[in-house]
Specification:
globular; mainly alpha; disordered N terminus; single chain; Growth Hormone, Chain: A; about 400 residues; 2 domains
């Protein structure tokens, strides 16, 4: 693929450190994107007090972010491929900064707007920086690895954001953290805008004209394996995020685990996901024919199915912790496979593909929480196991439809 952005690589896949040095602005933007919602989750109790609302009421506003991410991600997906990637990322970062500044006001209306804008901004920012990172390399293997490196950074930040924000929060509180996030986001937005000004959207293979809005979706539907891959991403997210939503309740009921100890369990899950995503992306970049990306996708889903089927019935805490770690690694592997395959197969449509993928995962988050709640209410934790196993099994069936294609 030929683009007007800088392509600085030959067909080989650079090492992670060399690639990170080349992609550091995108990795930084990926990390910053998680700060505002992390602050919202960390300081939910004082934020609710400041807004004169209950924890349940204010916490429920977060759902607005997922709804906004779904709507904006679907509606604006072609935009990522019709403008210079840096300009789209600049818009997402500006929206992120504005939302963080509004959140610092602290009343109910400002917090509702904060949640809506956070969801909208991340649905723009995440696919644009993933696609921009992939565009820096010409070979499909290197492009896929670049995109998974961005997602690995996001998962790492999800694990580290809370402890990193705790120290400055001691000095200036949650409002100070949000103001700092706003300043950093707006500064990055200006840098991306300056870098992207005057650049053009990536050209299609052969220099073809840009497609119309609806034609973009029609073309995306004809990308080999795109529809089942997007389905796998949504179902995987539903199973994993639903499992995470009720994980604390399960550990509390079965093992009477205090919140302080459960924080270590959460860190184990986050660390497992980060390591799985990082090393799966590195493995997939090597493009080994004896265990292709398509087969790795299927194996990851089967491992996730095994883990979730056994998790709620494990007889001891050590085995349950082992299954928690396996769950994180398995889902991270599937996520890396989906990102890699979409980037490799979508060519100049990769921005649209990643945007629709992000929107589908936002919907999956809601589906997982709702389905898990129904399963828990009807059948307790065995009901949770059944619901999440069925969702994961549906992902396995879709993965069987993802066939290898020849790379040109």
């Amino acid at each position: 693929m030929t683009t007007t952005t800088e392509v600085r690589s030959t067909g080989e896949v650079p090492g992670d450190w060399r690639m990170a040095k080349r992609l550091w602005p995108f990795l930084l933007a990926s990390a910053v994107s998680l700060i505002p919602f992390t602050v919202f989750g960390m300081y939910l109790v004082p934020i609710a007090a400041a807004a004169d609302g209950s924890v349940a009421e204010i916490g429920g506003l977060r759902g607005l972010g997922g709804l906004a991410a779904l709507i904006v991600g679907i509606a604006l997906a072609p935009l990522v491929d019709r403008l210079a990637r840096e300009l789209v990322a600049a818009g997402g970062l500006a929206l992120l900064g504005l939302s963080a500044a509004l959140g610092a006001i602290g009343n109910v209306f400002a917090l509702a707007t904060f949640c809506l804008l956070i969801g909208a901004s991340t649905s723009i920012l995440a696919p644009s920086i993933g696609a921009a990172a992939a565009d820096r390399f010409t070979s499909p293997a290197a492009a896929g690895r670049a995109a998974t490196l961005v997602s690995a950074t996001t998962s790492m930040m999800a694990m580290l954001a809370a402890p990193l924000l705790a120290v400055p929060g001691l000095f200036w509180g949650w409002r100070g953290n949000l103001v700092a996030a706003a300043v950093i986001s707006l500064a990055l937005s200006a840098a991306f805008f300056w870098r992207g000004w005057g650049r053009k959207a990536p050209l299609r293979a052969g220099g073809a004209k840009r497609m119309s809005y609806l034609a973009t979706y029609r073309a995306l539907a004809h990308v080999p394996g795109a529809l089942p891959l997007l389905g796998v991403a949504m179902l995987r997210t539903a199973a994993f995020m639903g499992y995470l939503a009720y994980m604390a309740a399960f550990y509390d009921e079965k093992f009477d685990l205090a919140p302080g100890w459960f924080a270590l369990v959460w860190s184990l899950s986050g660390a497992s996901f980060f390591v799985g995503n990082l090393f799966a992306g590195r493995y997939l970049a090597a493009d080994r024919p004896w265990l292709s990306s398509e087969r790795t996708l299927l194996l990851g889903l089967l491992a996730a199915l095994l883990a979730v089927s056994a998790f709620y019935f494990a007889p001891s805490l050590p085995l349950t912790l082992l299954l928690t770690s396996l769950m994180g690694v398995a889902h991270a592997t599937v996520a890396a496979c989906v990102t890699t395959l979409l980037v490799r197969r979508s060519d100049a449509l990769r921005g649209s593909a990643l945007s629709v993928n992000a929107a589908g995962m936002s919907m999956g988050t809601f589906v997982g929480a709702a389905a898990g709640g129904a399963g828990l209410g009807l059948g307790g934790f065995p009901g949770l196991a059944l619901v999440f196993a069925l969702i994961t099994f549906a992902g396995v069936l879709l993965a069987l439809r993802v066939r290898p294609v020849a790379q040109t």
